[in-house]
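Honest question from a wet-lab person: if I give you the sequences of every part of a complex, can you actually get the arrangement of the whole thing, not just the pieces? Trying it with mine:
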Amino acid sequence: MNLEEYAIYLEALELRFPLVRHRPKGVKEAFLEWVQPQLHQHQKSFWALRKISLAVKKGEVVGMIGRNGSGKSTLLRVIAGIYAPDAGVAMVRGRVSALLELSAGFREELSGLENIYLSGAILGYSRKDMQELASSIVAFSELGEQIEAPYRTYSSGMRSRLGFAVATAVQPEILLIDEALAVGDERFRERSMQRVEELVRQDDTTVIVVSHNTEELCRLCERLVLLERGEIVGQGDPSDVLREYRQLMTKP
Amino acid sequence: MIQFIQNIVRYRYVLHNFVVRDMKVKYRGTVFGYLWSLLEPLSFVGIYWFVFVVIAKRGGPEYPLQVVLGILPFQFFSLVVSGGAGALVGDAPLIRRVYLPREIFVVGQLVSQMVVLLLSLIVVVPFMFMHGALPGWRLVGLPVGLFLLSLYALGIALVLSCLQAVYRDVSYVLRVVLRLALYVTPVIYTLDMVPLNIRGAYLLNPLVIYISLIRSSVMNQSYPFDVSVFVYGVACAIISLWFGSWLFRQWIDRAVKYL
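Yes, you can. This is the full assembly:
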């Protein structure tokens, strides 16, 4: 098997999270966990992702669905490199741009323009690179003069528009989108959808979309992945997977 | 440690942005702005001069200069360690959402505090003129001392940043420990006031070496310890960063899950 053709290759990936309520509660508990770790291991964590195997080819567009808390966003974060798997293989090839939360890197006290540079830096672009991109980002975000105002003065729609403009302007090799398409007003939503479709059409951009909007997923994706309780329970042709998903949703 | 340095170099634009952001936040909404970086150490000098010289009748005419040269580097150390320890927790929203080498957040604190320190060091100049203590060739010891102090502080901050992600108690413990460190380090007094019979044990604290080095370098006085002590200080700085970055790498993946 040739791994080179995959942009994302996950195999038997597992991720455990500590239970918040099982932060050691006091000195006594902390001490006991320290001396008898094996006794306390089982109750300290839960599985966020189990047995995840997923191979995404370069240029492929894959959608992820599943109910709230099924692990979709967590999986995106593993792909983005934020969480390291506890077991299994996670191989990601290429520059990742994540629309995990549109305005993740933005700072309240900086202006919109300064935030463009900061986000660019976070995505690995130098100031010079960003100078070339800045004007198109400002244009796409439709913020106009407001781009010089501090970010804290922005409305939520303006924030999303700026975030979306930055994340899609930088020509990522791998684009992760987490329910980010539903931003701004009707008109901007249509434009952002078009922008994503442009990226999707580029053969070298690999895209993973998480969404509850089935219509949107069908429009964009070649393949869907269905997650349930941290496991992949189905994947393949969008219409087949959507049927499974609907069945799953009727169950409690 | 090599990978650690590579990450810093590769993400230097982010680092630069973080530092600029820190500076903007620091002085935002203040009337005096940058002046606070000078007024704050000056007020400390005033307090210690009053207690030490006026009340306790110790120290000579050079005391204010000695104190300011102790306070500034110590405060730098203390802010790098406490700020660095809180760096991951403080930037948790960002760390949970985008991938960046996590070292950047701790190193950002170091660089920001270094900028503040260098700006504050200007207050030393009038004191030097007051005593006619003009800088000489020993001034080369100043960057050396600051560099060693930075490495030492960074190593500690890296370890504490992971610990504080899991146990938020760290910040409280740290406050007590740093207060203690202030008194076992020649900040408000000088190394030659330390009794000779405990001098050996006293010098085990590498902060003593860095701060004395910085002070003597600026005041152009002979160094109050010999070469072997200096070598020990260099070793402590390197080991601190080496061990700190190693432990950070071991712990960070687990620590991130607690953010």
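Two things worth pointing out. Chain A touches chain B through 28 residues (CB under 8 Å). The beta strands of chain A are 6-18, 45-57, 61-65, 87-92, 96-99, 174-178, 206-210, 223-228, 231-236.
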